[in-house]
Amino acid sequence: MRVVVATGNAGKVREIGAALSGLGWALEGLGGLPLPEETGATYEENAALKACAASLTTRLPALADDSGLEVEALGGQPGVYSARFGGRSSDLERSLYLLEQLRRAPTRRAKFVSVIVLAYPDGHVESYRGELPGTLLEGPRGEHGFGYDPLFVPDGETRTLAEMTLEEKQAISHRGRALAALREAHRNGPPPREVKRAE
């Protein structure tokens, strides 16, 4: 089955392709096609906006993801606004802004959330969710990863995501868990029309 990955990032296409290997899918990028703005209030809505638009344009099944960091002390913020938290434009600025908000917080518990949506030209949509709980440090550690990775220590780990190799991160990440749920659902062909969760 040919599947379009609704992203302009060739690296993400390769990463998703590796995670879904064994399904026999031929994954391809958008090839320069535009994506709609992420105006949804949830990860599911944002991922569906992109996947449905790509599927309608290409007339092929299309896969898209949306993800974010939810901080307990901030009532779940920044969530879907993680990439533009506080109006900051760079990873470092957003991380410093987040640390400022947590300076007197009673807890530093947080979780990364990812939702993968697979949309078909006939309008059928599947959604898969993955979560990675952990704790935020008081300062960054590590040279790998991106976004809030240098601040985030997953439960059961002593290293931040930015101190792990890409392979180590992918094995436990929120996106990796969502993709694993999708892969399992399609292992024996298309699944029933229901939402699959990876906790």
UniProtKB/TrEMBL annotation:
Active site: 66
Swiss-Prot/TrEMBL catalytic activity: dITP + H2O = dIMP + diphosphate + H(+); XTP + H2O = XMP + diphosphate + H(+); ITP + H2O = IMP + diphosphate + H(+)
One of the GO biological process terms: purine nucleoside triphosphate catabolic process
Binding of substrate, residues: 7-12, 67, 146-149, 169, 174-175
Superkingdom as given in the UniProt entry: Bacteria
HAMAP family: Non_canon_purine_NTPase
Protein name: dITP/XTP pyrophosphatase
Organism from which the protein derives: Deinococcus terrestris
Organism lineage string: Bacteria, Thermotogati, Deinococcota, Deinococci, Deinococcales
